[in-house]
Hints:
heterodimer; A: alpha/beta; Helicase, Ruva Protein, domain 3; five-stranded parallel β-sheet; two-stranded parallel sheet; 55% helix; 8% strand; B: alpha/beta; 2 domains; 4 helices; 18% strand
Amino acid sequence: xxxxxxxxxxxxxxxxxxxxxxxxxxxxxxxxxxxxxxxxxxxxxxxxxxxxxxxxxxxxxxxxxxxxxxxxxxxxxxxxxxxxxxxxxxxxxxxxxxxxxxxxxxxxxxxxxxxxxxxxxxxxxxxxxxxxxxxxxxxxxxxxxxxxxxxxxxxxxxxxxxxxxxxxxxxxxxxxxxxxxxxxxxxxxxxxxxxxxxxxxxxxxxxxxxxxxxxxxxxxxxxxxxxxxxxxxxxxxxxxxxxxxxxxxxxxxxxxxxxxxxxxxxxxxxxxxxxxxxxxxxxxxxxxxxxxxxxxxxxxxxxxxxxxxxxxxxxxxxxxxxxxxxxxxxxxxxxxxxxxxxxxxxxxxxxxxxxxxxxxxxxxxxxxxxxxxxxxxxxxxxxxxxxxxxxxxxxxxxxxxxxxxxx
Amino acid sequence: xxxxxxxxxxxxxxxxxxxxxxxxxxxxxxxxxxxxxxxxxxxxxxxxxxxxxxxxxxxxxxxxxxxxxxxxxxxxxxxxxxxxxxxxxxxxxxxxxxxxxxxxxxxxxxxxxxx
Lengths: 407, 115
């Protein structure tokens, strides 16, 4: 019997065969046709919905050669520059010899770049993007990861979602026809339901249950367990705030993919939108504060306390379940936005303190505490003396303007 | 429940603040009609509209095969679909019963790509 995996055998050969995510497909093809602002694009969304398949299929349609670095490769700075560096910096001879339009660099599952094995990988990718002469495509399951922010800032973003059930059923019906398998529609619908929008897992499950069969009946698929896809942040927040009980909210937190620190901050920001009654809001913050206390006591060893953190988070979001009304979720947490906004300012202040430290032989900390307050006053006066001091410290216009405007 | 057309829709007078909020999260406004500019942010847009209108908001779907508009409520997969009521393309009930659905889908995709 032919043992080839059906996900490979029935991989889309052109973009039209990629099921679902019509809006994302159109956006990506527009980007590939060079109607884009950034050199790189990040396709993000759940696993198995066609991100990588679309890249390969569209590359075939538009005659691009794909150079791929995927999650199984070690992606340190060195290996990235060795493999991708030459590809992005010079025109490929393939353009002339193979009559292709050019190369396209694919970093698959870029959110897997963590850990010691991939040291420096994010920085190398950002460098490659800035110097690249060829299109760069990245895929990720979850772009809401702090370490990916440098990459996100230099990419166009295209969101993929779970593929809708009727489309997956249509695909499975086609595969069954091609494999000469007579399948009951209810059986295919059960497979699709369990896959939760993941086309790859639906095809894998179909192949598993069809092993050795020519007829697929509804009873044959009862053994397939439902996949636990994991909830993203918005699904998590929507779920916990609209839950009818702490138990229901706790169940949603169990399925969430989000780290507990981010969850705590996100729930903190959204509580005032959830509870219009001040007493309920006060009660919710009281419970949340206790969750925070437990979180602080976990440290690096007391992980058994994490269960209490989740219990208390679930309680904080379900103080008055009957009083729930839909509201616009705030995310990312305001702390992240604030840190991002002030990162530039903090970086500028640090460089000013470094210049003062160099000239006045003091530490950056002393420069900040003892020199900056006086320098602000002097620069705001805009006298000749102020200009001379700024010139002596080698402060550029941006630094001077920053000191003049900040309190 | 408020049904909004996926391509363009009207809203009652909202006031400056709520109008600004909708523009910020990804809607456009022209000649009395609202359009979705940033489909990536559609969940937030739907939540905001539900909050502003104080009722559940659902968007119509457009069938990829016949071009007809329909509601997710008419679909037998309503309970299991994670993007239900969001303004995406899909397959209507009538077309989903056709035997050659996959081939028709691919054909329509190719036609859309040419345009």
